[in-house]
Write a structure and sequence with these properties.
The chain has 447 residues and is of the alpha/beta class. The protein folds into three domains: 60 residues, Nucleic acid-binding proteins (OB fold (Dihydrolipoamide Acetyltransferase, E2P)); 201 residues, 3-Layer(aba) Sandwich (Rossmann fold); 115 residues, Beta Barrel (OB fold (Dihydrolipoamide Acetyltransferase, E2P)). Helices cover 23% and strands 28% of the residues. The chain has nine helices and 22 strands. The protein has an eight-stranded mixed beta sheet, with helices on both faces. The longest helix is centred in the N-terminal third of the chain and has 20 residues. It is globular.
């Protein structure tokens, strides 16, 4: 039987600009206004401003738009440093002063604690801040051949689009790569198979800059020579990736040394591959390390549990200051690398275990039967709710929780405080990603 129902069409977007006064800011940093009883979220507009905007999305009760002219500017408005700011989907807060960015992120964090977790920290920590530009040591750059421009474009995606932002450089990416986007484009444009390279993985360690070129077809020797020329000119280590992220072919040099970053205050060096998860901002990572370890108040008698340990970013320095440390991670590959890092740092008081910390099967894990008096949690965006019921039985005196998503931290804080008998003594944000809406945070729970 034919379906005669007509599909509802989205309202046609008005062409004309609309003048509004911005009343407040959303958690993502978009201006909030009202037009004809409809809430409008306006990109690149600040609270207190009068702006002209154009609609980008329209529905019955909510609309979205982008400011095209600022008629009355906020004193917190600054000129964006990046020429592609209005188009790029990377740094959406560049038009805000640094103080306002921190204020927005801290407010978002505290609002989540209050409304989601129903908790309040006894002490609000000052934000951890580091370099504002050139801080990003890990990135995935898109690559696309644009027929109209007759060249390859390299960079980040446009906001809400699959197109590559047309820009000569990236201000937040490490300068070894961020200042060379145009040159990367020129080198790839020269290649015969340039339309079959969709991305470049960037990883910058303390010792070298690695570029991993993903390619969908075999590269002829002439194309490989072009990439070798790029590597020699800028002292890059270049790998080719035809298959899985870990299946890399070293192009130049043929036997490169491992990437690493150092934690000098803890006499630790962490080796990693470009595909491994590491914090993108090494300076904030080092300060975050110190803050977490200080709040754990580690001593030579402590039995410590580190959940979601990854490569051992927290485990290795913590092991320097405690009796025994048990570290758990869901990826077997990461566990193997963490063990290798421990051996290379001559640290022998860590046990690494592989376990899916979101599975009920961990209930029978031997490491879960041990007693720990201090715990560190550093989960992904989904949080640590699946393991909280086990932690409650341990009765650890201190838990430090590092989070990349304030909403799930707030949810888990509610369980720790309102159900498991902990106090939220200290909490605060860490500006891991300046000029973006991303909020990194830390919370301290005391039994």
């Amino acid at each position: 039987m034919p379906n005669n129902r007509r599909r509802r069409r989205s309202p046609r977007l008005p062409e004309e600009t609309v003048q509004v006064e911005i009343e407040s800011l959303s958690a993502e940093g978009r201006g909030i206004a009202h037009v004809n009883d409809r809430i409008v979220f306006v990109d690149q507009a600040l609270a207190g401003e009068t702006v002209l905007f154009k609609y980008t999305k329209l529905s019955k009760n909510i609309a979205e738009g982008r400011a095209v002219e600022i008629l009355k500017a906020s004193p917190d408005r600054v000129e964006a440093r990046c020429s592609a700011f209005e188009m790029c989907g990377g740094c959406s807060l560049q038009h805000m002063s640094t103080d306002m960015q921190l204020e927005l992120k801290q407010k978002t964090f505290l609002d989540h604690l209050e409304h989601i977790g129903k908790v309040k920290a006894e002490n609000l920590l000052p934000p951890l801040i580091g370099p504002l530009w050139g801080y990003r040591h890990k990135a995935r750059l898109g690559v696309r051949y644009v027929h109209k421009k007759k060249r390859i474009m390299v960079g980040f995606r446009e906001s809400s689009s699959a197109f590559i932002t047309d820009t000569e450089q990236c201000e937040v990416l490490h300068p070894s790569v961020g200042l060379l986007l145009t040159e990367l484009s020129e080198f790839i444009t020269r290649m015969e198979q340039n339309q079959h390279i969709p991305q470049i993985e960037v990883a910058v360690g303390d010792n070298q800059t690695v570029l991993v070129f993903r390619h969908l077809v075999p590269l002829p020797e002439a194309d490989r020579d072009i990439l070798r020329e790029l590597a020699i000119k800028h002292d890059f280590v270049i790998y080719l990736q035809a298959g899985a992220p870990d299946e890399l072919e070293a192009l130049h040099p043929l036997q490169p040394e491992m990437l690493y970053y150092e934690l000098p205050r803890h006499n630790v060096r962490v080796e990693f591959q470009s595909s491994d998860f590491t914090q993108v901002n090494p300076e904030i990572n080092r300060d975050m390390m110190d803050r977490a370890i200080n709040f754990l108040q580690l001593n030579e008698n402590d039995q410590v549990l580190d959940l979601f340990c990854g490569l051992g970013n927290f485990s290795l320095p913590m092991a320097r200051q405690c009796a025994q440390l048990t570290a758990v991670e869901g990826s077997l590959a990461m566990v193997k690398k963490a063990r290798e890092n421990a051996a290379k740092n001559n640290i022998d008081n860590i046990e690494f275990h592989m376990a899916d910390l979101y599975s009920e099967e961990i209930a029978a894990a031997p490491w879960l039967k041990k007693k720990y008096n201090k715990i560190l949690l550093d989960p992904p965006r989904s949080g640590a709710d699946a393991v909280l019921r086990y932690l409650g039985k341990m009765g650890a005196e201190r838990i430090v929780y590092v989070s990349c998503h304030p909403a799930t931290l707030a949810r888990d804080a509610g369980v720790l405080v309102n159900e498991l008998g902990y106090r939220l003594t200290d909490a605060g944000i860490m500006d891991m990603f300046p000029h973006t809406k991303h909020v990194e945070s830390i919370a301290v729970f005391v039994k």
